[in-house]
Each structure stands twice: as structure tokens, then as C-alpha cells.
Amino acid sequence: MTTLYLDCFSGASGDMVLGALIDAGVPLADLRAALGSLAVDPEAVWTERVVRTGIAATKFHVRGEGVPESGPAPAATHDHGHGHSPDHGHDHGHPDSHAAGHDHADDHAHRTLPEIYRLIDRSALAPAGRERAKALFARLGEAESAIHGTPIEQVHLHEVGALDSIIDIVGAVFAFEALGADEVIASPLNVGSGTVRLAHGLYPVPAPATLKLLAGVPIYSGAQVAELVTPTGALLVSDYAQGYGPMPAMTVRTVGYGAGGRDFRDTPNVLRAVLGDRSAGHTHTVCVIECEIDDMNPQIFGALMDQVLEAGALDVFYTAVQMKKSRPGTLLTIMAPPAKREALTALVFRETTTIGVRYREMTRECLDRSHKTVETPLGAVRFKLATRGGTLLNASPEFEDILRLATAHGRPIKDVQALAMKAFLESA
Fold this sequence. Notes:
The chain is of the alpha+beta class. Helices cover 30% and strands 28% of the residues.
């Protein structure tokens, strides 16, 4: 099983993600070809080798809309300073003082989602890749809509609406696919601290859209007074990572480093991508936390499940039990990484009426999991695959994809599900 581990100890941005994936083995020429007419000429995107606090890394560059589309790329020894999204011109890791006085609202294109979708259709991605890129921008639009209280059809994307950010996201969709990892795991994200100036004003780090996109993702604020995670970085990591935590046990195949725009004195401003192989049927330790409850408003249980999962639990479920004094009750069972036990126990005590919990550590074995996108007559459907020792044991279509296609085409869900399974079996 091929595993890609994203080590976000210095945050994440779109150009850092792409730089790391290119450094890990994705050919730049193939990326340029996948961009299609988004890259107006071969020099619209390029890379350079830089050093960040002693680590050699790949810096990914895009010619922004504030730069003429003809003529040679700037010298490889210089970074762009104008006409870019936060992932480029903002210089990932810019201090909160913003000494350069650059206001993103001055020179960014303010595009609506339909305008961005039309640009994505200019790329040479496969149909499934274009749909995923559009879905990523839809998440950005939903985040902006929720924050600003604006209907999503009226949302204009500011910092992430410029062509260079669109190239970042389209390029990343291709690069993740090209690298061929069966699973993506990420570390908790260092978001930095301080403030950042955006189109609407001065905001705390992480910026509101970034924080919205990181819902359910483990984050922390490191020592750097800088914006370390941009909206594009948050979007890509949160969408592709299937889990978070320390680097898993694996045999390392290759390592890539993607550079941010600045060179800190004491911390390498890079994102590290580690590609390796995990053996089939891998095992790991989990902590099982349990308690019985018979005196709580049942409406609380639904909210509690959401809170427990957001706090890092691997799974949570309820079982009907008969308790003392012949009272019907509910057994709460939480399965989590051992490091999450204390935080989840505190959450249970705070949100429920229980006066005690018990826990035990167990070893569990998991099937190898991967994803595959299958084209059906109604559209693309992602499948979750489970294998052991290279043998496929389970294949399940993503229900969200089935529901989306059933709604769009006015078809029964069960019919779309059967159509997807037929397409999967024919593609095997």
C-alpha cells in the first residue's frame, strides 16, 4: 500500500504542496501539460531550487495576472512580489506587520464560481479531475458564503480567485493523482500566529476562511508570528488527507520538500511529503473509552457524537443497555488514538451526565484502504476500496457522489448505486 505523508510542521500553502509533490517525483512537464490552456505558455509555471534554513527545497512559481503573459519568466533567483494569491505574492510566512504594505484587494481578480469553473474546463485534466477541482472551489465558496453571510451564487472569491490560485488547485489535483498514493495522511497543521491583511481588512491568523476549511482538522499555533496556512493550503490538505497524526510505520520510497516564500531564521519554511509503502493488514493501538448513561436528555446524544468526532475520535457509537433499577440506558463507546484519551474524557465529562468512564487499549488490524474514481453514464463516482495482501475484498461507492448524481438526474438512489457498481465491475 502506497502512503503519502504530508508533514505540515511549517504550515501549508498551495505552492508548498505543489513544490513538495514535484520534488517527490511529479514531472513538471507533465504538470504543464495537465494545465492545458490555463498555462498560457511553457514559462507560465516554473520551479527553482532554494534553501530554507538549511534544507534544499523546490519553490513552485506561477506568473500572476498582474504580470504580462508574454516574455520570459523572472530570473530564478527572485520570488514574485505582486499580482499573486496569498500562496504566491503574499509570501507564505509573511509577518503580521506586512511591511511591504501589500493589500490583496488591489490586484486580484474577483471571480465567481461559474467563472472559475469555466477556467477549470480549459485545463487538460481528465473529467474526474476537473470535477474534483470544481468541488474544491465549491468548498471555498461555501466557506466564504458562511463567513460573510452572502448567498453562494453571489460570492466573489478574492485571495483565491486569481489565475495563479486556480493553477495551484488544478495542478495539485493532477499531482496527487500522478503520485499514485493509495492513502494520504497529514500531520497536525501549524497555523502560525499574528494577523494578516486580506481584501476585507486585518484579520487574526488563521484567517476566517482558512479556519472554516480546517474544521475537524487538528491544528496548533506555533512560535512563528506569521500566517503559515493559507486558504488554498487548508483546502488541499483537508480534502486529500484521510487521517491525521504522526508519521505511520512505512518503508520510505522518496521525500519531497516544497518551499514557502520566506526563509525563517530558526525553522525550515517547507512542507515535507514522504512517499512510502505500508505492509498489508497493518495493526495499531487504539483506546476504547466507555460509559453508561441513563439520566440525560436524548437530544444531546446527536450533538455529542459530532463533538466527539470533531475532537479526533476514530469512531463513536451507542448501544441500548439495561441498567440498575431496571432503567433503560445507553452505552457510549468511543474509539480513539491513545493520545486523544484525556481530551475526549474531558469532553465526555463536560457534555454528559456521567460521573465516570473506563478505558482500555486494544490492538486492531485494518484492511488497506484506497480510492478509485469510476466514470458512469451519469458522471464520476469515487469508490472506497479495501484490500488485504493485494486482494480486493470490498468496494463501496461514496454515498455523497451517488446522492449528487441521483439528485442531478432525477433518478432513484438505488438505481444510481447499481449503475455505479456495474461501471466499477466493468472497469476492474
